[in-house]
TrEMBL record:
SMART domains, sorted: TIR (SM00255)
Chain segments carrying region Disordered: 458-493
Regions that span the bilayer: 261-282
InterPro entries according to UniProt: Leu-rich_rpt (IPR001611), LRR_dom_sf (IPR032675), TIR_dom (IPR000157), Toll_tir_struct_dom_sf (IPR035897)
GO CC annotations, alphabetized: plasma membrane
PROSITE patterns given in the database record: LRR, TIR
Species assigned in the record: Pinctada imbricata
Annotated protein name in UniProt: TIR domain-containing protein
Record keywords: Membrane, Signal, Transmembrane, Transmembrane helix
Sequence ranges assigned to domain TIR in this UniProt record: 311-453
Membrane topology (UniProt): Single-pass membrane protein
GO MF annotation list: signaling receptor activity
Primary localisation category: membrane
Family: Belongs to the Toll-like receptor family.
Length: 517
């Protein structure tokens, strides 16, 4: 054998090629070579190494053979069922041989464990080959070349049979690539598919369950992939790919990863929630301060405290007679309300509480002085009333005297800023104002009027006693005109609009206040 291996390049063509011009079917099936056990047991290690080296020389010498065997009529070639095929048998079969009309090549059951390059590039070695049978071997990996698409030549449709091998991995990329090779078809039936959880299996299942893809003509040839059966894991053994989904895959969860991931999500959600709370608190801090006081009777920290004052009224309400209906309903309802936070207030309304016999101006002065606040109901009617404007100036002067925010303004309607008198415009920037259509109008008004401290100058009973004495004295004072009728005195424009001190004069330029409730 070693002698033949060393002299293969000297063998003549007739011996090497046989009947190359006439042979049509060549069957060399079920032939296995082997060394006798006695020979193998008595062979030294040096002899084994010599045999291996002789094999390497044999391949090199075949490439130096000066002729080619051209089997001009061979259409059927069967080398199946053999346990002793050389690892390089495909190289030996193609280096110096040509098969111009071979159509069927059977290499099943020969124990090969890989797809040789000559098989992947079949179109270069077998011009007319239609079917190559590599079934029932030990091939574990699907390999093929896309270059067949670019090969120029007149070759027929080719089928590569890889059924009953040990190919466990088929990917969506494999199917997509194969669908783009129109002249080649690979049969992968009865391979032990591994359906264990992996990204490749997930992608394959998505492709299999994509009905739109399988309507394409190029994919229809590979619809059999849908019914390939899983070999592992055990739970999915025997199930077809089309019958399982991604949820059926037994994906092992990395507990440490999940815990970390869950922690990150939890912290992110908490941080986002905290940011939202901070933004809400910052944006609606006034509303929160008001509602916590009016609804829950809680005074939040960092809120200025007010000293209790012994005055008859909580507020003198200055308004135009044209707005009397709204004023009466609003303030009289508050006095009669069952809500404890509202019913505690007492308001001075000129249509109800002015002392008969006194001039309007004296009533205004007394009402402002005996009230903790003056509520200005600002409307166009108010601006057009001299008496209302006088009441406003008296209330403003009282704020200066008491050195506190005495005024509260209710905007009954929208009035452009350029239509407001300059002194009223400045006042709105300093004192509390509330819009009539505010969603929490009553809460804002209650908050502005409320005494928000536990410190008192005198007791409530002392305040009521003082108020009754003052009322008795005021009731005896009247201003009667010459005809015996009570009538307001005639005053000049200068007395209605007296010079006033600006808010900066008594609040100080460094004092900051939030004037919009």
């Amino acid at each position: 054998m070693l002698a033949v291996a060393n002299t293969i390049d000297t063998v003549n063509k007739d011996y090497q090629c046989g009947c190359e011009d006439t042979v049509q079917r060549y069957i060399s099936r079920n032939i296995t070579y082997g060394f006798h056990q006695e020979i193998m047991s008595g062979m030294s290690s040096d002899k084994g190494l010599e045999i291996m080296q002789a094999g390497d020389r044999f391949l090199a010498k075949t490439r130096n053979i000066p002729y080619n065997c051209v089997y001009k009529r061979l259409t059927y070639y069967d080398q199946s069922i053999s346990a002793s095929k050389a690892k390089l048998f495909m190289e030996l079969s193609t280096d110096n041989s040509r098969y111009p009309v071979l159509r069927f090549y059977n290499l099943s059951r020969i124990g090969v464990d890989r797809i040789h390059q000559q098989v992947m590039r079949w179109y270069r070695y077998f011009d007319k080959l239609e079917y190559m049978d590599l079934s029932r071997n030990k091939i574990t990996e699907l390999q093929f070349e896309d270059s067949v698409k670019a090969y120029e030549g007149d070759y027929p449709d080719f089928t590569l049979d890889l059924s009953y091998n040990k190919i466990s991995e088929i990917t969506a990329q494999h199917i997509e690539r194969l669908s783009k090779i129109p002249n080649m078809f690979i049969d992968l039936k009865e391979n032990p598919i591994n359906c264990s959880c992996s990204e490749d299996v997930k992608h394959l299942l998505k492709l299999i369950h994509n009905k739109g893809v399988w309507k394409k003509e190029s994919y229809k040839r590979y619809e059999y992939v849908k019914v390939l059966r899983c070999n592992e894991p055990v739970k999915l053994e025997g199930k077809t790919l089309i019958s399982i989904t991604e949820n059926d895959l037994l994906c092992e969860v990395d507990v440490e990863y999940v815990v970390d991931y869950a922690s990150i999500i939890s912290l992110s959600v908490f941080a986002l929630f905290l940011i939202i709370i901070i933004i809400i608190l910052a944006k609606f801090r006034r509303e929160i301060r008001i509602l916590t006081y009016t609804r829950f009777h809680i005074i939040l920290p960092c809120q200025s405290e007010l000293l209790y004052e012994n005055k008859r009224y909580d507020a003198f309400v200055s308004y135009s007679s044209a707005d009397q209906e709204w004023v009466s309903k609003t303030f009289e309802d508050m006095e009669e309300s069952k809500n404890e936070s509202m019913s505690k207030f007492r308001f001075c309304l000129h249509h109800r509480d002015f002392i008969p016999g006194k001039t309007i101006f004296d009533n205004v002065i007394d009402s402002v002085e005996t009230s903790r606040h003056t509520v200005i109901v600002l409307s166009r009617n108010f601006l057009n009333s001299h008496y209302c404007m006088y009441e406003f100036h008296e209330a403003f002067q009282q704020s200066i005297i008491e050195r506190k925010k005495h005024l509260i303004v209710i905007l009954l309607e929208d009035i452009p800023t350029n239509e407001l008198p300059k002194d009223l415009k400045r006042c709105l920037k300093t004192f509390t104002y509330i819009r009539k259509d505010d969603m929490i109008f009553e809460d804002r008004l209650v908050f502005a009027l409320s005494y928000k401290s536990n410190k008192r100058l005198t007791s409530r009973s002392d305040s009521e006693s003082t108020s009754r004495t003052m009322n008795s004295q005021i009731s005896r004072e009247t201003d009667v005109t010459s005809d015996g009728n009570m009538s307001p005195s005639v005053i000049s424009t200068d007395s209605v609009f007296p010079p006033i001190i600006t808010p900066d004069d008594f609040l100080g330029k460094t004092q900051k206040c939030e004037n919009h409730l």
